[in-house]
Structure formats: structure tokens, C-alpha cells
Amino acid sequence: MAAASTALLLLLVVAIHGRVWCFASDTISVNSSISGGRTVVSRGGNFELGFFSPAGNSNRSYYVGIWYKKAVSQCTPVWVANRAAPVSDPASSQLAVAADGNLVLINEAGKPVWSSDVSSASSSNTVVAAILDSGNLVLRREDGEVLWQSSEHPTDTWLPGVHLGLNKITGHAQALTSWKISGAPAPGMFTFGIDPNGTNQFFMNWNRTVNFWSSGEWNGDIFPGVPELTSHDKNDFEFVSNANSSYFTYSLQDPTVISRLVMDVSGQVRQKMWLPSAGQWTIIWTEPHKLCDVYAVCGAFGVCNEKSEPFCICPAGFRPSSEGDWELGDHSHGCRRNNPLQCDRSTNSSVHDMDDGDAFLLAPGISLPRNPSPAQASSAQDCRLACSRSCDCTAYSYGSRCALWYGDLLNLQRRVEDTAGMDDLYLRLSAMDVPSKGRRRTIVFVSVASVASILALSVIVCVLRIFRRRQRSIAFLQAASEGGNLVAYEYSDLRRATKNFSEKLGGGSFGSVYKGTLPHGGADVAVKKLEGLLCVGEKQFRNEVRTIGVIQHVNLVRLCGFSSRGGERLLVYEYMPNGSLDRALFGGAAAPALSWRARFQIALGAARGLLYLHEGCRDCIIHCDIKPENILLDEGLVPKVADFGMAKLVGREFSRVLTTVRGTIGYLAPEWISGLPITAKVDVYSYGMVLMEIISGRRNARCWEADEEGRMSEYFPLVAARKVTSEGEALVGLLDERLNGDADEQELDRACRVACWCVQDDEARRPTMEQVVQMLEGVVTVDVPPIPASLHALSQNTGFVSMHTTAYFDGLSRSL
Ligand SMILES: *[C@@H]1O[C@H](CO)[C@@H](O)[C@H](O)[C@H]1NC(C)=O
Ligand SMILES: *[C@@H]1O[C@H](CO)[C@@H](O)[C@H](O)[C@H]1NC(C)=O
Ligand SMILES: *[C@@H]1O[C@H](CO)[C@@H](O)[C@H](O)[C@H]1NC(C)=O
Ligand SMILES: *[C@@H]1O[C@H](CO)[C@@H](O)[C@H](O)[C@H]1NC(C)=O
Ligand SMILES: *[C@@H]1O[C@H](CO)[C@@H](O)[C@H](O)[C@H]1NC(C)=O
Ligand SMILES: *[C@@H]1O[C@H](CO)[C@@H](O)[C@H](O)[C@H]1NC(C)=O
């Protein structure tokens, strides 16, 4: 019996093994092509090659590509063979080694649509194509000679270990080229690659011609334009130049991390990392940092506004050139006029007089485009006439002098500051599109009957609207009056309340926050749009939101409601008119310096809020992301801790990864990095770092400034720790200079000692939040703390690295 079952088991193992061996081959040869659902998988199971249809592809077109097989659950192509020539039926298409030894893709009609195109391949019998664990597809002869490899023909992705560079013999420069839109791998407008002239730097190009970004030349350590790309270990990023080629390559310090660099459809280069626990990719850094700095990101006449969604809009009198693409997020076609210009190009004059032909419309809030053509004009009227005289002139501005622009305007941007009046831009439109001056005469022809019917229709619509609004306002009033209870809002109501998410308050962790106003004189609210948190199911999300909604304390920001429908998750918080602590502390001239009194109260209040989180509610909540950005101030400067409970909403491990990646590193306790278990003491550490910043009024991490001799000035927490630990030192030197020493000496002494205790490396030495509150209140005395060992180590040699790491994480938090 036992023997029989063993034999059966053995048979089963052999069968399974045989199957795996038979189907999961890693090679394509003249005798084994792939088509339909058949794929080949690299030996270690890292990558898979086969036919696929990209997510978001509406045409059911298929491509041959390579994607991650192991670990990455989303189909993420890293290379595509037939980018521009999809096949429609993979079952009757074939990827095979052809008679001349080339790897060829034959479509359903039997036509070759893609080939590896090696001129002197070989007899097909001696050639195989193999997919490797590095993601490289290699066409090689029996004797091992490599004829062709996919890594030398990258599409939009640069994988670790791959050389991206220049073949000095052929002059061919490899470049990443963005997809056209996210569902179509056809080559798009943006490319990223090494300088074809052979200098050791990267360029980003638009339309293969316009160079709009450069990394600066690699100096062996960093790219001057991308200081955050430096690393502790030089082997991470490498430039190699020899007689035949020059190239860059990069590797990851932690081989278990899955990461890739892509030339994104948006026009940004993005380094992404796979988060296994969340089942999705997260962006580690991007260039250019600002989406609006991408060349022609909104196309001709499109106006870019980083703070709105969508970030491209058309100015008044214009509409998207291609509505469908615009909706899909492809703004490259830009905007066109509602009605064509009347100007007659052959004579440079409007069909009729100017009033009936073209006119100019003020484009408010748009900053002046670059490279104007100057013109002679002594008044705004003259300037306008100068522009209207040429049909190619599309805009003018008359500030201190007359400036004209010709042709399509690219890179229009929303103005950052409101400098209305001086630099007003006037865009040329058909007079029909300019209000008031518009079609005065045609109006006469509009029949009375149609006016009457429009009137009747609008009355009906109005009545219906008022009716619906009343219903809706009831829901909102309930929200306001119920106080304690959470309200489940409709997504559309919140969209309206935030004017379509137009006023961004900040881009905190886990999503952006927008200001909103509940209708009918309702309260101001802050609406947080959670991003990329689909790992927690709808039901769990609602449960967790309810638990968080119950947590109420004078020093915690109150959650008033939420909305969860489909993928969109919104949280509604009370609005804090004085913004966040970082603005109050580091806002520069815009924010008057907080008095010591206010600072001490803020420190105490934030500590009490954290204490309540740790010990006051039923389940202990670790905040995990304490930093000045997450401490908000109400009208009376009462501090309120924001963004707590996120770990519940997004799953604990996810929050951990996120904090490691995007939380400002200066606030992270050593446990995060060393891998020790996370306890409430991580919040104590972060709080200590924030307390130092409250005292000094400067970012701990940003005070690396070179003095006259080029030396780095010292890291504030270290300076503070040294002063605190040496008896008899006057601590007033640590105080924000703007306060001119105006502080309660005893409070300052207590605060400095508490801060230093909080940032001890050993979590057991750190006080609890309860002790922190008691020490600050003066209820218990504070002993002299020791200097934390890691601060001491930091002072020895790694200062420069640390500055760059900080810049790196700052870049991260900006880009995310
Ligand atoms: C679908 O096909 C049309 C025309 O062939 C093309 O313009 C469009 O970009 C394609 N869309 C996608 C998502 O592939
Ligand atoms: C393909 O099959 C033929 C005959 O079955 C055999 O002679 C040849 O070696 C095979 N080629 C490869 C590359 O396996
Ligand atoms: C490369 O060098 C040539 C000649 O020196 C120069 O004209 C060209 O602008 C350079 N190209 C780039 C991209 O720097
Ligand atoms: C891109 O460049 C080509 C010539 O290199 C030009 O014909 C085409 O109009 C350009 N595209 C845009 C959108 O300007
Ligand atoms: C450059 O190419 C030649 C001929 O292909 C080869 O012999 C030589 O080893 C190559 N040099 C380097 C540094 O790879
Ligand atoms: C129209 O005006 C432009 C700019 O002033 C000029 O370059 C062009 O030659 C003129 N065309 C005709 C047909 O007059």
C-alpha cells in the first residue's frame, strides 16, 4: 500500500516536473515558436515573454513583450517588440526563428511585422532565442556568440544591470522612448538617453528634437542636476567609457528589491519600486520634479497647472483638439480655438474689419510664454494692432513694452503669484469667441420662439436643481449637526464642495488634500483624496474609517466623513485655517516668527495628542509619520495631529514601506532602518526631532550650509545634544534667532532635554509620551540626557551623504 502510494507520488512528481520542464521552456528555436497564450519563462522565473494586450488598450491589439513573472502581480511590460505594429489575433500570429536566423514576428495575415534584423545571422538550426533572468532576450548561436539582445534596444524601461549608452563604432545612441498613451506602446513624444555626442550625461527630448532637460555631467558621484541620485555605495550607478562604447548602468543594493526606471507617458522619467504588500508600484523619484516643467506637456495652447486635476486646461475660447485623447490623459494634441481665425494669410488682413474678424481675449492668470518677439508700440492699442497685422501673430502683451508671439504657444503655465495687470497675456481668437464684442448683429436673428423655449427649459431645469440641492443640503446639514458621527458622502457632492478638487492644500502622505466648503454657508473642510490604496477592501476600509472617526481629542484633527465608491476614497476632515506647523516654522518672511509661548504650547499640545493616540483610545495607535507637516494649527494656534490611523487604512506593512520611502528621513527612528519591531517609541523619536525644529525654527536636515572655508555647518540635533549634555552651557544659543533670546529659560531647558531624550537610539531609553508630557509640564524633573550614539557617529564623516539623502527624500515627498 505504502509502496503503491509512493510510486503514485513519484509518478505525480515526475508528471508535474515533466510538465514544467516541457511548457516553461526559456528558449525559442526553429522547432519551437510561440503564439497565442504560450510563453517562455526565464530559468529562475523572473521574467516571461509572450503575447499581451496592455491594460487600458481599447483596440484589443496584441504585442510581444517581456514582463515580470515572479513577485510582481500586475502585468508590467518592460520591453515590447512590435511597438508600432500590433497584431490582432495572437493565436494565428507567431514569434519564431526564421530561416535566416533572425527572430521574427509574423502576424495573422502571415506578414512579418517585426524582426531582430541582424544582417549576418546564421543558419536557423544553430540559433536560439533565450529569455534571461535579468529581463534580457538574447538571440545567440550554438557556440554562444550573441547576435542580438533586447537590452540593446530598450523601449521605455531601463532595468538594473542593463547598459544604456552609446555605441561609438556605429554612433547609435540608445534611448528610452515613452509609450504614446498608457494603453498603447507605440513610440510617444518623449525620449531619455545619453548624450549622442558622448559626454557622460543624460538628456530628455521632446519630439526627438527639443532637448528640455539634462542631468548635467556625471562627476563620478552625482549628476549635478539630480543630486538625489547619489548613493552611499558608488557601485550603484556607474559610467563606463571605452574604445567601443560609453554607457551608464545601475544596480540595486538590495537584490530582493524590484525596481525599474521608465520614461513615462507623462514626460517624466520615473524610478519605481514594487511594494509586495500593497501589490503595486510606487514612485521613488521623478525628473523633472514638476510635471509642468515637461516640455509641451499640455500641447499647443494647453495651460498647465500642477495644483489642479486634470493638470491641463484649455484657455477661454479654446477646447481640446482631440477630446477623446484628452479624456484618456493624452494632452499632447493641445487645444484649438472654438472657431477658426478669420485672418486671411495671403494678405495678412482680417476678412472684414478687426471687430468682425479676429479679436483678442485676456487670458487671466496665465504667465507669459518664453521667447517673445519685441515690437515697436507706444500703447497697448498699438501693440494689439501690431499683432493683428500679421495672421501668424497669436498673442500679445503690453507691460513695460510690447511683446508679440507667433505660431502655436507651447508650455503655457498657470501663474504662481498673482501679478495681474502688469503682464497680461491676450490671445488671438475669432471675434465670435470673444464675449460682448461677439456677434452683436447675429443676435438679432435669434428667433423669439427659441428664446421662449430656452427660457421654459431653464425654468424646469432650475426647479429640478433646487429640489435636488435641497435634498443634498439636508445630508450636509446632518453632517454638520451630528457632530460625533461620521457621514458617508457622495463622491459627486465632495467634488462639488471642493470645486472639482481645485484648491490643493497640500500633498501629504497617501494622497493630496483639497479645501472644500459645504454648501449653504456650511463649514470649511479639508478633503483628502487617498491614492493607490486599493489593497484594503471596501468593507475593511469602512470599518477602519469608523474606528478612526471615534477617536476625538482636542489635539487631534477630527475626521468628519468619508466617501468610498469604486476606486475613489476620500476622507473629510475639519479645516485648519492656520495650516501646518512646517509653514508656521519655516514659512520664511510670509509667516511671522512664532513666540516662545506659542511654540511651547504647540509642543505640549502635540505631545498630548500623541499620548491620547498611544494610550487614550481602545487600541493603541502608532502614528508612524510624525513630522511638522502632520501637525496642524487651528485659529487659536492649538496644535492638532493629523493623518493618524493611516496604518489601519492601508495595512500595516504598507505604511511601513511608505514611511521608509517617503517620510522625511530626518524624523525616522533607527528601528525603521534596522528592522527591529516597531513600537509607539518610533513616534517618540519623531516627536523629539520635531521638538528640536520647534526650538531652532530650522529644519534639522537643512542646516548643512558651507561656511567660508567650505566646511559643512553642524547638524542641529548634534549641536543641541552636545550643549544639553554639558553642564552650565547656555541653551539660549539653540533658540531660533528670530526670537532674540526671548524665551522662558526653564521651559527651554526642559524642552531641550526632553528632545534629546526622545532621540536616543535605544528605544528603551526614550521616554513614553506620558513621561514627555509630564516632563514638559514640569511635573517631573528631567535628568541630563546622554548624546545619542548615532548622532555622534553622524558627526564623524557621513555628513555629506546625509545631506543628499535628505534632498533625495525631499524630492520624493515632492514628487509623490
Ligand atoms: C486604437 O486604434 C486607433 C486607430 O487605429 C488609434 O488611433 C488609437 O490610438 C488606438 N488606441 C489604442 C488605445 O490603442
Ligand atoms: C529541429 O528539429 C530538427 C529535426 O527534428 C533537428 O534536426 C534540429 O536539430 C532541431 N533544431 C533545434 C535548434 O533544436
Ligand atoms: C554635438 O556636437 C555637435 C558638434 O560639436 C554640435 O553641433 C551638437 O549641437 C552637439 N549635440 C548635442 C546634443 O550637444
Ligand atoms: C515633430 O517633429 C517633426 C519633424 O521633426 C515635425 O514635422 C512635427 O510637426 C513635430 N511635431 C509637433 C507636434 O510639433
Ligand atoms: C572593441 O571592439 C573590438 C572589435 O570588435 C574588440 O576586439 C575589443 O576587445 C573591444 N574593446 C573593448 C574595450 O571592449
Ligand atoms: C504677414 O506678416 C508677417 C509678419 O509680419 C510677414 O512675415 C509675412 O511676410 C506677411 N505675409 C504677407 C503675405 O504679407
UniProtKB/TrEMBL annotation:
One of its GO terms (cellular component) is membrane. The keyword Flavoprotein does not apply. Residues 25-152 form the Bulb-type lectin domain. Residues 343-430 form the Apple domain. It is an enzyme of class 2 (transferase). It is found in: Membrane. It is a single-pass type I membrane protein. ATP binds at K529. It catalyses: L-threonyl-[protein] + ATP = O-phospho-L-threonyl-[protein] + ADP + H(+); L-seryl-[protein] + ATP = O-phospho-L-seryl-[protein] + ADP + H(+). Residues 1-22 form the signal peptide. This is Receptor-like serine/threonine-protein kinase. It comes from Dichanthelium oligosanthes. The lineage of its organism: Eukaryota, Viridiplantae, Streptophyta, Embryophyta, Tracheophyta.
